Amino acid sequence: MRTVVLSLFCSLHVLSGTANSPGCTSNNPYNILLNYYCKTSESGGDYIGTISRTISGRTCQSWEVQYPHKHHFEDELPGSAAAHRNYCRNPSNKMSGGPWCFTTDPSVEWEYCNVPMCQYDCLYTKKGREYIGSMSKTKSGRTCQRWDSQTPHVIPAALTSRFSGPFSCHENFCRNTANASRPWCYTTDPEVKMEFCDIDFCNKK
Predict the structure, then answer these.
(1) What pTM value is reported for the model?
(2) Gap between the terminal Cα atoms of the chain
(3) So where does this one cross the membrane (predicted)?
(4) Consecutive sets of 10 residues in the chain, 205 residues long: mean pLDDT of each?
(5) What gap in Å lies between CA 142 and CA 120, rounded to an integer?
(6) Other CB atoms closer than 10 Å to residue 50's CB: what's the count?
(7) Which residues contact 127 (CB under 8 A, 6 or more apart)?
């Protein structure tokens, strides 16, 4: 399944929007992972997950085939239609009701899929590289240092360069752009350089 995400990475414009700074788009390169689990808008044009059943439980028809229902949407999917298999999608973001698919039931042409809205204040994965929430305290209760600040700790440019757009948009929120075991941050305590953050998993909320 991971190959599906990688093959579509360059084709999708990932939406987010947790930062409050003026002019921020908050497009973290890792946000592509968030779109694997949920949709960030009602229409869900950014969804690239593997849900392949409709809201009524019908199996989705593969986008690369024309049976039992003929269509032209294979040309409207980013990348190749084969890469999307029979997963729920919203080609060109045309359907306001969210991701959908043609069904394998000859009597039912298409249906919407039950793709959940993204939650930004929790983790979908153990490492939490997809996390773009606003937690700004470490597990011990220390306040996080802003990513665009160099005091009290110097933050390497190689690390902040992993944020696309102004890294100031991420303020002092816990993040995991360094492939650590979970989201973390530099702290404002001169004696403690960094700590992990205590963030719940979405399925526990």
Answers:
(1) 0.68
(2) 25
(3) none
(4) 36 36 47 79 92 98 97 90 96 92 98 93 91 94 96 92 76 91 97 97 75
(5) 21
(6) 14
(7) 176, 179, 180, 181, 182
Using alpha carbons only, give the angle 152, 173, 42 rounded to the nearest 5 degrees.
165
Other beta carbons within 10 Å of 47: 26
Q: Which of 40, 9, 32 is nearest to 120 (CA)?
A: 40
29 C-beta neighbours (distance < 10 Å), count: 15
Written as six digits, the tokens of 92 are 């060109």
SS3 at position 59: strand
Return the structure tokens found at 49.
């997950």
Backbone φ and ψ for 202, nearest 5 degrees, come out as: -60, -35
